[in-house]
Amino acid sequence: MNTLNQKITDQVLISTLWVFVLLNMVFRDLHQLGAPGFIEQMISGTVNGVTITDELMLIGGILAEIPIMMVLLSRILNDNFNKWANIFAGTITIAVFATAVPNADMDDIFHMVIEVAAILWIFVIAWKLPAKNEALQN
Hints:
By secondary structure, this protein is mostly helical. The chain is built from 5 helices and 2 strands. The chain has a two-stranded antiparallel sheet. A hairpin with a 2-residue loop joins strand 1 and strand 2. Helix 1 packs antiparallel against helix 3, helix 3 packs antiparallel against helix 4 and helix 4 packs antiparallel against helix 5. It starts with 9 loop residues before the first helix and ends with a helix. The model has no long low-confidence stretch (mean pLDDT about 90).
């Protein structure tokens, strides 16, 4: 159990942190629509100098699916798989955030810092999962 609230299991906390990350990602993307010229770039098919293709949209969809999938998987996987799935998914998600840094403005950086902090918290909780259950069994 975590120290925040003894009624919340680690798996539920991890899942909730993934929801928190996702909400920040969605808000950051929606917020971007208000940036001057952004909608015009989207309509033109080129955003920040990158041509938006079907393949790029598929890759983006796959990468966005990773944190979405972790909301469910972090609740249903056994502890050992949960640990490694969260570390793998978090690492990929942080790497995706890093690709946005060269074109990021202040509000993008603000949200990315919060998202990365939440993922680092996920890492800490997930890293301890199997060890805690092994200790309980002994």
